[in-house]
Amino acid sequence: MLDVMLTMALLGVVSADSKTSDDAMKKELKQFQGKWAAAVMIDNGKPVDEKMRKATTLIVDGNKFVLKDDDKVILEGTFKIDPLKKPKSIDATVSFGANKDVVVLGIYQIDGDVRKSCFADADKTRPDRFRKEEGFLYLEWKRIK
């Protein structure tokens, strides 16, 4: 009987942790929604051309995103987040050219209407901090209201 009670108690803990994780993800995902303007873009340690940066926007709907240069779609994809990791993690799945369903590992931080993200090149591991150097894409976005 003790084994059954311990098992039930452990299952309750797992269920509670799972619910907490789901609730945190839903709350965090809500913060991603909407249209964002690129404030800072550093690709492989070099700032992206100012004209391109100013024309770049990101539109997030659910777990889908569209990156645009003015009205031209640059990239589309989906993403998954884990707000309980330290730093918070984001995995973006994109397709471009002959490359289909490429998963890019990153981290993110949202503070009100400002969002930072840092992604590693496709062949690298997830960044452990926000990096503005070769092998990484560092982005800062400001929410468009």
Would you write up a description of this structure?
The chain has 145 residues and is an alpha+beta fold. It has a single domain, classed as Lipocalin (Beta Barrel). The chain is 26% helix and 50% strand. It is built from two helices and nine strands, in the order H-E-E-H-E-E-E-E-E-E-E. An eight-stranded antiparallel beta barrel has the order 1-3-4-5-6-7-8-9. Strand 1 and strand 2 form a beta hairpin.
Low-confidence region ranges: 1-17
How many individual β-strands?
A: 9
Distance between the termini: 58 Å
Strand content: over 45%
Instruction: Assign a percent range to the helix content.
Output: 25-40%
CATH class reads Mainly Beta
Assembly of the depicted chains: single chain
CATH architecture: Beta Barrel
Summarize the structure.
With 145 residues, the protein is of the alpha+beta class. It has helices at residues 2-32, 50-55; strands at 34-43, 46-47, 56-61, 64-69, 72-82, 89-96, 99-111, 114-120, 136-144. The model is unreliable at 1-17 (pLDDT under 50).
Which key features would you list for this structure?
alpha+beta; Lipocalin; single chain; 8-stranded antiparallel barrel; 2 helices
